[in-house]
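Comment thread on ticket #2218

A.B. wrote:
> Attaching the input chain for the structure job we discussed in standup.
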Amino acid sequence: MSESPRDTSPATPTGSPRRVVIAGGSGALGRRICADLVARGIEVVVLTRSVDPVWSIRQVRWDGETRGDWVRELDAPGTALINLAGKLVDVRPTAANIAELRRSRVIPTRLLADVAEGLAEPLTHWVQASTTAIWSDAGDTWCTEETPLPDPGLPQMTGVAAPWEEAAQGARCGHQTILRTSIVLDTGAPALRTLSRLTRVGLGGRVGSGQQWFSWIHIDDWLAIARAALGLTPGLELPDGVLVAATDAPVRNAELMAALRRHLHRPAAPPTPTPLLRLGAVVLRSDPLLGLTGRRARSQVLADRDFRFAFGDLDSALADLIG
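C.D. wrote:
> Ran it. Output below, let me know if you need it in another format.
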């Protein structure tokens, strides 16, 4: 069985990395994994375009496109890499925006792979960020590590995530994990913050049909999976390749919104019809398909290794995060 996600013991397995470089690590998820690793005695360095002077984590400036002094951060024995670099996806799905979403992921990843090829010692581990949205709108299909990708899929989902993953494949490292992450539930993450805000102001009804699947994971469980992918979890060895970071209990949109209303002590709310959502997305410069599509995802790899989620159902996750 895996360690508890909130276990802060500094003990790590032999051969695990002593330092971790995180590309694009200044976002909400990056800051969480930084704090988690530092608490375990791991040296952390963040590659970022904009250095935060009040953040205690060591930061090194890079532009994600060209070599610079940051290359030296990867060229030390016992170094692992987490690549989170990429722009937020909540934009209008125009051809130009989709191209920029793809470019902001593929170019930095190719650069990191090129740099890794010339290092004196290979990186111990490479954890490559990806997303369960790579399956676009999967309907009722269970999406696991073995599920084929749609062809062609939605351009702003499969069309962005697939080349992102491809850019990292074959990179020189001891172990590589392609971490297809579902929606991460965390108080500081955009998804839960937005959904909670809408529910509090009376807009907590189902979206569209309400039947689209919502795959999710609590931040503590995501951190536990990330640690395992870095080889930091005693007794839990993960194979290289694709790994789905999602609980075994996805819910439909209608169930999600009902649970949020319950935990936020809000009454029933009217549904948001599809035409109204599409109109609102135009005003907010967002993508309506973020709310109208879904994936029913879970990890067969983690199940085969008896990984135990600390928050395996939505009610326990929301109770922990919302209180």
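A.B. wrote:
> Thanks. Noting for the ticket: Residues 19-322 form a domain with the Rossmann fold fold (CATH 3.40.50.720).
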